[in-house]
Structures are given as structure tokens and as C-alpha cells.
Automatic annotation (TrEMBL):
TM region(s), chain numbering: 24-48
Keywords assigned by UniProt, alphabetized: Disulfide bond, Membrane, Oxidoreductase, Redox-active center, Signal, Transmembrane, Transmembrane helix
Organism, scientific name: Candidatus Magasanikbacteria bacterium CG10_big_fil_rev_8_21_14_0_10_47_10
Protein name: Thioredoxin domain-containing protein
SUPFAM superfamilies (UniProt xref): Thioredoxin-like (SSF52833)
A Pfam family the protein falls into: Thioredoxin_4
GO molecular function: oxidoreductase activity
UniProt similarity note: Belongs to the thioredoxin family. DsbA subfamily.
PANTHER family per UniProt: DISULFIDE BOND FORMATION PROTEIN D, GLUTATHIONE S-TRANSFERASE KAPPA
Location of the Thioredoxin domain: 71-256
């Protein structure tokens, strides 16, 4: 156990002033950390499209990046309303699970290297199992490459597995094994009995870069600032959401319909 701190010679501030100062300090630090993470998420997206996007997309992104960045200091976290048509966020390349005609749609923006996505994984898996027949779950990639260097490659690998109708099985391995090296990505394809030559070619040629760019752009349009983020009909749910909260949210939406 460490030695106790020595008693300072100068007079200490009054307890009221000391506790107030500490609260202000921690609030300030918390706001700074939140803004920093939001900035990194947006900046990583910027770098991704700078590398892979076409000139027109880069020009558009520069405008959107500056606009979104200016909103960060006043941004809320948790649960908020989304003023977009979420059906326009769903594309043929997006893996789906459940009932495509359901009145409740959940769009999940996920980064396979994000520790918060991993923390949310088990509860969201239970939601998929429990409410699959009653909801439409749509997966979208949002790799935050600036702080998660393996996320983009994992996203590409998952899309290559989706090409062989094995997305959700591959998705589970990515989260449960938590290994994202190139060898690990190839080993998951072998474990799932995928056509390994087709899978390797798909991954080596970055076949689904444009589709992942589309998911990233959709995320920016929906106000996604980090992962995991979910769109539950017209609600944006940010961060790790526990099973009980998911159940309440879904039941609430089912009752509306």
C-alpha cells in the first residue's frame, strides 16, 4: 500500500470550494475526452475517403467534415431523434437479419476493433435471437481507422464472407475470437468452409471498398460520431446498450405500430 500523502504546510481550501473545484475539473476533462473521441472518429473517416474515395467524394466530404465538426461541442450522447428516412440507408450490400417487412428496423453502425462494440456484442446477440422475427436488423460498417488500425481490413473481410452468405457467422468469430490479423481473417474463412481462393482474392483486391465508403457516408449523414451507434426507427441510440434497455426500446416501438 502506498505511503500516505504528506500534509501540506499551506492552509487547505474549504471543503465546499475543494469539492466544487473537483467537480468542475472532472466535467471539463470529460467534455474534452468526448470531443476528442468524436473528432478522431470523424477524422478517421476523412482519412479513409482521402485514400480510397474519388475526387468528387473527397470534395463533398471536406464540406461535410467541416460542418459536422462545428457541431461537436454541443452534441448530445445517448438517445436522440433522427430526422432522416432510414430506408434510404439500406443498400443491397448491407447484411440483414430478421424480418425485412417488420415495422421496427435497427441499423447498427459497428467497428470490429472497437472495445465498446465488443462490450455491446453479447446483449445485441440476445436481441437478435429474441426479436429476430419481429424486427429488421441491418448491419453497416463504420471502421474508425485512425484509432483502430485493423478495423477497415476486418470490415472488408466480413463483406467478403457476406459474398459467400456467411456474414453473421464471420461476424461472430470476429467478436468472439478478437483476433484481427491478416492470418486470423483468413483462418476464419477456412473455419467456415468458405471458398478460400475466392475469399483471399476478394480481400486482396479490396473488392468492397466502395460499399464500406457508402456505409461511412450514411453514418455521417445520420450523425454517427462513434461506435456502436444504432438507428432504431427514428431514434439514434449511442454507446453500449444493455439487454433490458433494448427490450424496453423495442417493445415501445412495437406498441407504436
Amino acid at each position: 500500500m502506498p505511503d500516505p500523502m504528506p500534509i501540506p504546510e499551506q492552509p487547505l481550501p474549504s471543503p465546499r470550494h475543494s469539492s466544487t473545484g473537483k467537480r468542475v475539473f472532472f466535467v471539463a476533462v470529460g467534455l474534452f475526452v468526448l470531443a476528442a473521441f468524436a473528432f478522431l472518429a470523424l477524422f478517421s473517416y476523412y482519412l479513409w475517403v482521402e485514400r480510397y474515395g474519388d475526387p468528387a467524394k473527397r470534395t463533398q466530404l471536406n464540406e461535410r467534415f467541416q460542418e459536422q465538426l462545428s457541431l461537436l461541442p454541443g452534441a448530445n450522447t445517448g438517445r436522440s431523434t433522427v430526422d432522416i428516412d432510414i430506408t434510404k440507408q439500406i443498400h443491397p450490400h448491407n447484411p440483414m437479419f430478421g424480418n425485412a417487412d417488420a415495422s421496427v428496423t435497427i441499423i447498427a453502425f459497428i467497428d470490429f476493433e472497437c472495445p465498446y462494440c465488443r462490450a455491446a456484442y453479447n446483449d445485441f446477440e440476445q436481441i437478435r435471437d429474441q426479436y429476430g422475427p419481429a424486427v429488421n436488423i441491418v448491419f453497416k460498417h463504420f471502421p474508425v481507422s485512425q484509432i483502430h488500425p485493423h478495423a477497415a481490413q476486418a470490415a472488408l473481410a466480413a463483406q467478403c464472407a457476406h459474398e459467400q452468405n456467411a456474414f453473421w457467422e464471420y461476424y461472430r468469430l470476429l467478436f468472439e475470437k478478437q483476433q484481427l490479423s491478416d492470418d486470423a481473417l483468413l483462418s476464419y474463412a477456412h473455419r467456415l468452409n468458405l471458398n478460400e481462393e475466392t475469399f483471399s482474392s476478394c480481400l486482396a483486391t479490396n473488392k468492397y471498398i466502395n460499399e464500406i465508403n457508402q456505409d461511412l457516408q450514411d453514418g455521417i449523414n445520420a450523425g454517427v460520431r462513434g461506435t456502436p451507434t444504432y438507428l432504431l426507427n427514428n431514434q439514434r441510440i449511442e454507446g453500449v446498450t444493455k439487454l433490458e434497455s433494448w427490450q424496453n426500446l423495442i417493445v415501445e416501438e412495437l406498441q407504436k405500430s
